[in-house]
Amino acid sequence: MLNGAWTLRLRAIPWAIVLVIIALTGFGLVILYSAAGGSLQPWALKQGIRFVVLLLAMLVLAQIDTGVWLKWAYALYGAVLLALVGVELLGQIGGGSQRWLDLGIIQLQPSEFMKLAIILALARFYQNLPRPFLTTIQGLWPPLLLIAMPAALVMLQPDLGTALAISFGGVVMMFLAGVRLWLFLGAGAAVGAALPVAWTMLHDYQRKRVLIFMDPASDPLGAGYHITQSKIAIGSGGLSGKGFLQGTQSHLDYLPELHTDFIFATMAEEWGLLGGLFVIIGFGTLLAWGIGVALRARTRFERLAALGLTFTLFFYLAINMMMVMGLAPVVGIPLPLISYGGSAMMTVLILLGLLMGIARQTRRAA
Question: Given CB 3.0 to 4.6 Å as the disulfide criterion, which of 68, 78, 142, 258 pairs with 266?
Fold first, then answer.
């Protein structure tokens, strides 16, 4: 009977989606191999081992009932919030930022996990909130506080991109829960009025990024260098690219952060438009599946969690691709499953594991 139960659980896993995940990550490993000049070190081998372990963890997470996440949503949020406080007190500094906790065997970036914790916490909040209270003070201040606390802590690191991702996920959850549109319009107007004050609170390099986004040519050899070289790499790829291991912008060190933030440009130079379409279609498949999971969900918690997780994944994709094309400021958001990095990959595979768990619950109840 035990074997039969596990057989049913395994059948409930969306294996077609698992294959899409493997295909995207496999393509990312090929790009990392090329970015290192045709070597498994220092990126591709570590990323591949990490992916195998995390893929198995994703499949295990998919077996957990959503009731467990509902019960522990606030506790998980609190634990990650405490970890963010720990980063401020004990965090490791790298690249000018203080974002990591050194646990000895691994360095964790708690801000990555807050992108998921905020979704689960708000889904739990709105699961129990009667609809008439959505636009009352009692219905507005708790979610705003839940969003503001981690966003402020992440900004102190400083990490503008992750703070924006946390805020985006939280605001989207409020909108999906049914908070009136006029409140968002009013809040948008207030944010617009506060922009001059917010501008003064940004670090010098963050202000420079915004200015360079508006006019990269104003400093082509300085702050505008990253965006300029990224555009050159993408444009030079043409339809089918220069060929595997033939990228000049990346191999001659013109392209910065070629294995993390700008990996899409690294890929586009060698694989061209066809490689870009492969990535976009693959992620489009994941996003369409995530929305489908939400539409079929049984409870409000599951529906909101599935939609929030899907839009969080979309935020990753949209900002990273817009960033490397010069359509958004450079804010340091990696391309899911493809960019090198442990915490980012762990976050995305946990996200997908949660979605698979919701899908399994829905299928079992049908």
Answer: 258
